Write a sequence for this structure.
């Protein structure tokens, strides 16, 4: 899963981890710098103005609770393996870390057992966490499309149950069933849903994705962007 991307780029809902965490920049090995800047549009291994900085593991799928109360020189660790997942560093310590060094051994750490974090590939599909992230992502996506006038009108749909958000440029075929009774469905820009397809939420269909006619897309699915499914 991480051969061609960093953990922060994993799409754990409508959004990738780094998008949901709301980061201002990314920290990665130097050989990734140019590629990550191109793919995400974010600065890599650069610090903005400020005296202290919060570092988050790219494996986090949601912002940890009580993160705002994490003092400078303190860190949160994953109780499962002891790895640091969040650290509040002074500017000097942040520069040291970005230069490729390990975290300061003097960091005061607190283990956490309530993290929404990737340890194994199947953690992406854990039911409660996926539904929670999809609900949050669907709300954020709905507001963004509504403000920009890119939200499709409900009359585009043939069959709908529950919370469904469709971009105005998406194409929905005839007799498509969108069953969001179990969770939100989000259909992105220029996505094409073929005739008679069935999509069960929570599910995200990314931009420029093509769902073939008669396809059956089950719950807890993230497709795209730019994918073709069902033949």
């Amino acid at each position: 899963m991480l051969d061609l991307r960093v953990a922060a780029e994993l799409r754990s809902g409508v959004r990738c981890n780094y998008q949901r965490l709301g980061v201002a920049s990314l920290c990665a090995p130097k050989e990734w710098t140019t590629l990550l800047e191109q793919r995400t549009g974010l600065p890599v291994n650069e610090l903005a103005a400020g005296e202290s900085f919060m570092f988050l593991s790219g494996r986090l799928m949601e912002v940890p609770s009580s993160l705002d109360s994490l003092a400078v020189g303190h860190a949160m660790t994953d109780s499962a393996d002891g790895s640091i997942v969040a650290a509040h560093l002074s500017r000097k310590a942040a520069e040291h870390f970005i230069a490729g060094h390990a975290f300061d051994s003097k960091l005061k750490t607190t283990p956490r057992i309530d993290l929404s974090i990737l340890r194994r590939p199947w953690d992406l599909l854990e039911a409660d966490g996926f539904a929670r992230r999809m609900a949050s992502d669907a709300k954020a996506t709905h507001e963004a499309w509504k403000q920009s006038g890119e939200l499709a009108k409900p009359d585009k749909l043939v069959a709908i149950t529950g919370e469904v958000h469709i971009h105005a440029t998406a194409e929905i075929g005839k007799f498509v069933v969108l069953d969001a009774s179990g969770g939100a469905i989000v259909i992105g820009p220029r996505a094409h849903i073929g005739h008679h397809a069935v999509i069960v939420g929570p599910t995200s269909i990314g931009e420029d994705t093509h769902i073939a006619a008669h396809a059956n897309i089950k719950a807890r699915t993230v497709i795209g962007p730019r994918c073709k499914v069902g033949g």
Observations:
- Residues 7-122 form one domain.
- The helical segments are 17-21, 33-40, 91-98, 127-147.
